Amino acid sequence: MKNSTDMTTPVTRGELREELAKLEQKLERKLEQKLERKLEQKLEQKLEQKLEQKLEQKLEQKLAHLATKAEIAKLATKAEIANLATKAEIETWGGALMARMDEHARETRRALSAELARHTRAAHESSTRELAVIDEKYADLPKRVTRIEDKVFGSKPP
Prior knowledge:
82% of the residues lie in helices and 0% in strands. The protein is an all-alpha fold.
């Protein structure tokens, strides 16, 4: 088939068979693809259903082993209740804990007070040194002012 759009050109049987074979192959591929997609979808659905069933079965098995509230209440015997701490024991334990916490708080306060005192002394010493430098600088100021006044205003009357 030389010109496929020209419908007036005669076609040989061989060319017709070739075109039909190509068309047949193309149709087969499309059908195979459609079938594959449908099979995949069905397989996925089946797998999901199977998984859901298995999960439900496992969940039911696990739930069957769990005890109900009523069964738990039956299991709680006096011996088990006796193992629980009494109010007096809890109060004793709580009192001991409070005493330890109070002691720890006192120790912390003492340590913080001592540290604050050290910092305060250090700050005082530092400011004292700085002020001493300033005082030394102007220690002779009264004498100098007196001399200036004497020169400017003259000596003071007695």
